[in-house]
From TrEMBL:
Keywords: Membrane, Transmembrane, Transmembrane helix. One of its GO terms (cellular component) is membrane. This is Threonine/homoserine efflux transporter RhtA. InterPro entries: EamA_dom (IPR000620), EmrE-like (IPR037185). Pfam families: EamA. It comes from Aromatoleum tolulyticum. The lineage of its organism: Bacteria, Pseudomonadati, Pseudomonadota, Betaproteobacteria, Rhodocyclales.
Length: 293
């Protein structure tokens, strides 16, 4: 069993920033593939490649102890919530732009804060709700839902946000009893096993060309690396500290949406980015120099 998670907020924030950049790349590749292939095929590729990478990198070192968990049942639930998140978000990509999907996912920090305070016993001074809410207003400025945005894609995103909030809280809870590599391995195993059961009904032989196979393989690399950094971030700092900084993924998504899909951010989007960054700096400053419970 690991020692209780230590609090190193700056280290946790840096790990989180790396994870979010990788997740934005993961979403970009997923959206590209989802435009040509069923959701189940894309999600299967993401988890199967992730599982293979995990086995190659970690199994020689850890052996079967790689999957030794103090809470295997909770690891199963955690893995299934991430599969649900991935499937819902990839489905949303088939109906909505990258930045808009990413913006709507950012109901997640609110849910994480509520769950972390309620179930993990983390402290959240009342005043710290202010920068979180201000940060969310910046999200709305960057990706303003248009009148036709409220379609099935929105439902998929909100379902994904609920799953992702539970996943983050369970990751924090399990960080106190399981190694990071064990959490990463369970995520890959559960995702791959689940999708291997579901994907045959959607598989079309020969549908993936060489380029698509390479993109599919990259999903595993990006996912494995990103989630390892996320686990390390949640081990280093409380979820309530990290939550405001998850907005940085929207900055990455907006930039990638511009570069890959031609969505150039306008003035209001840039203003939203500034608001998000400012709210994150306020929370980081208070964490670094101390605050009362």
């Amino acid at each position: 069993m690991n020692a209780p998670a230590a609090h190193h907020p700056i280290r946790g924030i840096l790990y989180l920033m790396g994870a979010l950049a990788l997740f934005a790349l993961l979403d970009t590749v997923s959206k590209t593939l989802a435009a040509r292939h069923p959701v189940a095929v894309v999600v299967w590729g993401r988890y199967f490649a992730h599982f293979l990478i995990t086995l190659v990198v970690f199994l020689p070192r850890y052996g079967t102890s790689l999957f030794k968990s103090a809470r295997p049942g909770l690891q199963l639930v955690r893995g299934l919530t991430l599969v649900g998140t991935t499937g819902a978000v990839v489905a949303a990509f088939q109906h909505m732009p990258l930045a808009e999907v990413t913006a709507l996912v950012f109901v997640t920090p609110f849910l994480v804060t509520i769950l972390a305070v309620s179930f993990l016993g983390e402290k959240m001074p009342a005043w710290r709700w202010i920068p979180v809410i201000v940060g969310f207003s910046g999200v709305l400025l960057i990706a303003r839902p248009s009148g036709n945005a409220f379609n099935i894609g929105v439902v998929f995103v909100l379902l994904g946000a609920v799953c992702y909030a539970v996943y983050q809280v369970l990751t924090r809870k399990l960080s106190a009893v399981d190694r990071s590599v064990t959490q990463l391995s369970y995520t890959a195993l559960i995702g791959a096993a689940t999708m291997c059961v579901l994907v045959p009904r959607y598989w079309v032989p020969g549908a993936l060309d060489l380029r698509d196979w390479l993109l599919t393989g990259s999903l595993g690399v990006l996912a494995a690396s990103g989630h390892l950094l996320m686990i390390m971030a949640l081990r280093a700092a409380p979820a309530t500290t990290l939550s405001p900084f998850t907005y940085a993924q929207l900055v990455w998504a907006t930039l990638l949406g511009w570069l890959v899909f031609g969505d150039f951010p306008d003035g209001l989007s840039l203003a939203g980015m500034g608001i998000i960054v400012a709210s994150g700096v306020v929370v980081a400053y208070s964490e670094r120099f101390g605050k009362s419970g």
